[in-house]
Amino acid sequence: MRELFDKALGAYLGFAIGDALGATVEFMRPREIALHHGVHREIVGGGWLKLARGQVTDDTTMSLALGAALLQGGSPALCGLVRGDDSLVRSIGHAYVQWFKAKPVDCGNTCRRGIQRLLHDGTLEGPFNPGDGGNGALMRNLPSVLATLGNDAAFARLSIAQAHLTHHHPLCDAATLGLGRLLGLLLAGADRAAARLWAAQWVHDNPAFGFTPYRGRATAYVVDTVQTVLHYWTLHDDFEAAVVATVNQGDDADTTGALVGMLAGARCGAARLPQRWLHRLQPDTVQAITNQTSGLLALAQGLPLANPV
Ligand code: MG
Ligand code: MG
Q1: 40-70: per-residue pLDDT in tens?
Q2: CA of 12 to the centre of ligand 2 (A)
């Protein structure tokens, strides 16, 4: 259990590190980054959002909003969701609305549109929309993985429900499920070779996300995001090397950085994350993530074991 907690905390803190590091160079081209930063490798804030040093963006704060809603509902709400009760989804939607009303530092277009729909008519999903192919639902799904660890049916139901609050697109669904299951596999202790093999099979089954040869596109389109994440995560064994290489690809660097940090952090665990980065994160962020990690893992223990992946 202690080892699982270290891996889960490594994933969540690794996610926040990637977000804070990448945000400085979000929307920049690799050549621009090289010109301004050489190799960008320190958490310094700034960027187009003019962040304070160590500040995270919507990727982490929306994840925390989801995590808080899951914890508030507790095991009964999660078990209710598995039985088809949508009250937990409604609570998550409410958490996203509250997050939005608190004027977050940024909010993606599709997330904004979905939250405004929710505010307007209270529906828990919009119709399929070919314009919903952004990475906003994928980026915030980490708490769903922790809260349902060991129960794939619950994981899938929760992931799709939270995704559809703002995004309704089959590639978003596939990406959200795929990276979530890969994270679950790493938390269950899969070694690097086994996780890579799983990823290769997943790409075989979902060829839109094929990342070899890597096309060098790291936009917020979910296909570009997943290709970038899998490319750099498989290329580098070491947490720091993987995250640095990812964010220096620029574009949606906070989100690709966060997702690579999540996968690489799950493998190395919190104890082996680079201390200088960890100390740069804002203390209330680290505290909230630490509290959520133990609470969400406890939620998963309250679920019946079923269909482990
Ligand atoms: Mg962001
Ligand atoms: Mg971003």
Answers
A1: 999 999 999 999 999 999 999 999 999 999 9
A2: 17
The number of the ligand nearest the C-alpha atom of 220 reads 2
Question: Could you tell me the distance, in angstroms and rounded to a whole number, from the CA of residue 135 to the centre of ligand 2?
Answer: 8
Rounded distance from Cα 275 to ligand 2 centre (Å): 24
Residue 309 confidence (pLDDT): 42
Closest ligand (CA of 60): 1
How does 68-96 read in b/e, with b if 16+ C-beta sit within 10 Å? bbbbebeeebbbebbeeeeebbbbbbebb
Alpha carbon of 191 to ligand 2 centroid (Å) = 29
Residue with tokens 């809260």: 147
